[in-house]
């Protein structure tokens, strides 16, 4: 068992995906975890899966983590601050400024509250989806404010580091603007793009490739949760979507008459702008380093992908990233292998020598 920075006990309120994962991660480090949830069924499942024990009257937690839907987060935080006057309280809601302002307006004890937000999740929710390693290597924002001392807030830092996440400090306003750009607006764009598929003919949908899957992957998200998130962070999301609408209008105008003077240049500049933007997305190890991609055809039979990865290792090339794409009806997959550029030529030659088909 790895030694923990926290001394516990920790109370987790709400045992959905995040709450259950926090409990499992802390229990793996030997921390006492007290679980509470409005749903007795969710609570029983989380307890059975080892995320902690059911909270009892008389518990005295040192730290409380509120993991409930955004529209009730401020209410629950206020209640926890009142019920446990010696505890520090944080929450994991994906919007921070509105909650902080709400608590301040209520006169809540902000000297014991500090909001946070782990940027981690899965396609499925609920306690059954909880994982002890959900937060490992993921950013976890602490929304700093002047009302709490560094000494008191340090227990939240310990929680984040114990769970293997990377601590990021921002103000609540900075956080909300940042997630509007990298999470909330992309959700809207993905959902609207996926909606175009609703009435599309099967002949068109069957042509779908990895590009469409990439753009629409998050469109499968929970509508009820996103109504809450977008409503709570409407202003910065609106700012981004309005700018996006202006970009789209310019593109539409150029595409409406591609033979007009300057139209092709405008289209090219928009595409190049996308190239520039995507290069800023952090890659492996959180750096803006770009890799070379090799596309290798892998037969759809047991053990072939494992053999490919093993042979890449035998050659002495480090695999930076991997994505596997399948085409409908095809008996093979396309493995997109990302490696450092200087290894591309030698790896291509070696894989071809070993009988692998390089598609690109």
Name the descriptors:
360 residues, alpha/beta, Rossmann fold, 6-phosphogluconate dehydrogenase C-terminal fold, five-stranded parallel sheet
Question: In percent, how helical is the residue content?
Answer: 40-55%
Portion of residues in beta strands equals: 15-25%
Query: Do you know the CATH topology of the largest domain?
Result: Rossmann fold
Distance between the termini: 45 Å
- Structural class comes to alpha/beta
How many whole angstroms does the radius of gyration measure? Answer: 24 Å
Strand order, sheet with most strands:
3-2-1-4-5
Task: Write the H/E string, N to C.
Answer: EHEHEEHEHEEHEHHHHHHEHEEHE
Uncertain residue ranges = none
Whole-number mean pLDDT: 91
CATH superfamily of the largest domain: NAD(P)-binding Rossmann-like Domain
**Helix segment tally:** 13
Main beta-sheet annotation? 5 strands, parallel
Second CATH tier, the architecture of the largest domain: 3-Layer(aba) Sandwich
Number of strands: 12
In terms of quaternary structure, what is this?
single chain
What report would you give on this structure?
- This protein is an alpha/beta fold.
- It has three domains: 10-171, 3-Layer(aba) Sandwich (Rossmann fold); 178-278, 6-phosphogluconate dehydrogenase C-terminal like domain (6-phosphogluconate dehydrogenase C-terminal fold, Orthogonal Bundle), CATH 1.10.3660; 286-358, Alpha-Beta Plaits.
- Helix content is 45%, strand content 16%.
- The chain contains 13 helices and twelve strands.
- It has a five-stranded parallel beta sheet, sandwiched between helices. Strands 10-11-9-12 form a four-stranded antiparallel beta sheet, covered by helices on one side.
- Helix 3 packs across helix 4, helix 6 (172-195) crosses helix 10 and helix 10 (234-256) runs antiparallel to helix 11.
- The two termini are 45 Å apart.
- The relative contact order is 0.08.
- InterPro entries: 6-PGluconate_DH-like_C_sf, ACT-like_dom_sf, ACT_dom, NAD(P)-bd_dom_sf, PDH_C, PDH_N, Preph/Arog_dehydrog, Prephen_DH.
């Amino acid at each position: 068992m790895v030694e923990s920075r926290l001394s516990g006990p920790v109370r987790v309120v709400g045992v959905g995906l995040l709450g259950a994962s926090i409990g499992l991660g802390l229990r793996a480090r030997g921390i006492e975890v007290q679980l509470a949830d409005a749903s007795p069924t969710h609570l029983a499942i989380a307890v059975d899966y080892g995320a902690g024990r059911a909270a009892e009257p008389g518990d005295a937690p040192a730290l409380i983590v509120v993991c409930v839907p955004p529209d009730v987060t401020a209410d629950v935080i206020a209640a926890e601050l009142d019920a446990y006057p010696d505890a520090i309280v944080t929450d994991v809601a994906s919007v921070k400024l509105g909650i902080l302002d709400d608590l301040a307006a209520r006169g809540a004890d902000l000297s014991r509250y500090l909001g946070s937000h782990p940027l981690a999740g899965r396609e499925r929710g609920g306690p059954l989806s909880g994982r002890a390693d959900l937060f490992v290597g993921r950013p976890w924002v602490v929304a700093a404010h002047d009302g709490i001392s560094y000494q008191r807030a340090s227990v939240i830092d310990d929680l984040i580091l114990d769970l293997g996440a990377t601590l990021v400090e921002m103000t609540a306003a900075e956080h909300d603007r940042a997630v509007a750009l990298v999470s909330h607006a992309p959700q809207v764009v993905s959902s609207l793009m996926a909606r175009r598929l609703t009435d599309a003919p099967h002949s068109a949908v069957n042509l779908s490739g990895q590009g469409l899957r990439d753009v629409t992957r998050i469109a499968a998200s929970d509508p009820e949760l996103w109504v809450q998130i977008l409503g709570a962070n409407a202003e910065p999301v609106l700012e981004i979507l309005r700018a996006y609408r202006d970009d789209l209008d310019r593109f539409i105008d150029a595409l409406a008459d591609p033979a007009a003077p300057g139209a092709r240049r405008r289209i090219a500049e928009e595409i190049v702008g996308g190239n520039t933007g995507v290069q800023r997305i952090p890659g492996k190890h959180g750096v803006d380093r770009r890799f070379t991609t090799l596309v290798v055809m892998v037969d759809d039979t047991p053990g072939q992908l494992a053999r490919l990865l093993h042979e890449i290792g035998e050659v002495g090339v480090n695999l930076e990233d991997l994505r596997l794409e399948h085409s409908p009806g095809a008996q093979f997959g396309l493995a997109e292998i990302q490696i450092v550029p200087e290894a591309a030529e030698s790896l291509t030659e070696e894989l071809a020598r070993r009988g692998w088909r390089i598609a690109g």
